[in-house]
Amino acid sequence: MYLDVFDRNPYGTDCWLLAADGTDEAIVVDPGFEPEAVRALLTAAGKTPVAVLLTHAHLDHAGTAGPFAGDDVPVFCHPADAVAFTDPVAWRRDGFPNPLEPVKDLRSFEDGDVLRLGGVDVEVWHTPGHTPGHCIFRVDGELLVFSGDLVFAGSIGRSDFANSDPAAMRRSLVRFLTLPDDLRVLPGHGPETTVGRERATNPYLREFG
């Protein structure tokens, strides 16, 4: 498995790059900032992006998804957050004043969808709360989950933005804890962790067992 991360940006946002063994096709999760730097990482590894997956449509995760994807690479986003690209006022982009760059091939996914991309099966879990369309991506073949801004090492994402929903966030956190303990957690910010470690040590998850 090829796995890399780019986080050199003002928000410390993790852009994750994943490819299955034996393929040069890579998935890019949350390109965020500096699309040319991310492409350079892929080129150095001999990989070509075949899809961009957005955990959510905040600027630090999705701001340059359009320029990164260009004309040929589809960008996948939950419909509840895809509104940020077409009607940012309606989406209420609280705290992130800069508009998102346009995306030429914007596609949607729903909870439970399994996307076959570059030799990898990616299962979509809709985990609203941080944003209405926030999703995490489970990759069982590699025993990992991209958790976006739902769960970090020792912390969780905010649910106090204008379009956040604290009650939905609680439900999403409870659902996260149904994942197996040995699953690697690759978050939207900070170092990787595991479900088991967060279950045992994350103070924001202890109340959920």
Task: Describe the overall structure.
The chain is of the alpha/beta class and 209 residues long. It has a single domain, classed as 4-Layer Sandwich (Metallo-beta-lactamase, Chain A). The protein is built from seven helices and 14 strands. The protein has helices spanning 35-44, 59-62, 65-69, 79-86, 88-91, 166-176, 195-201; strands at 2-6, 15-19, 25-29, 48-53, 75-77, 106-108, 114-117, 120-126, 135-139, 144-148, 151-152, 155-156, 184-187, 193-194. The strands form three sheets. The chain has a six-stranded mixed sheet. The protein has a six-stranded mixed sheet with strand order 7-8-9-10-13-14. The chain has a two-stranded antiparallel ribbon with strand order 11-12. The model has no long low-confidence stretch (mean pLDDT 94).
How are the elements arranged and paired?
Elements: E1 2-6, E2 15-19, E3 25-29, H1 35-44, E4 48-53, H2 59-62, H3 65-69, E5 75-77, H4 79-86, H5 88-91, E6 106-108, E7 114-117, E8 120-126, E9 135-139, E10 144-148, E11 151-152, E12 155-156, H6 166-176, E13 184-187, E14 193-194, H7 195-201
Order of strands across the main sheet: 1-2-3-4-5-6
Q: Extract low-pLDDT stretches.
A: none
Which range best describes the helical content: under 10%, 10-25%, 25-40%, 40-55%, 55-70% or over 70%? Answer: 10-25%
CATH architecture assignment name: 4-Layer Sandwich
Structural class: alpha/beta
| Counted beta strands | 14
Rg (C-alpha, Å):
16 Å
CATH class: Alpha Beta
Q: Kindly report the CATH topology.
A: Metallo-beta-lactamase, Chain A
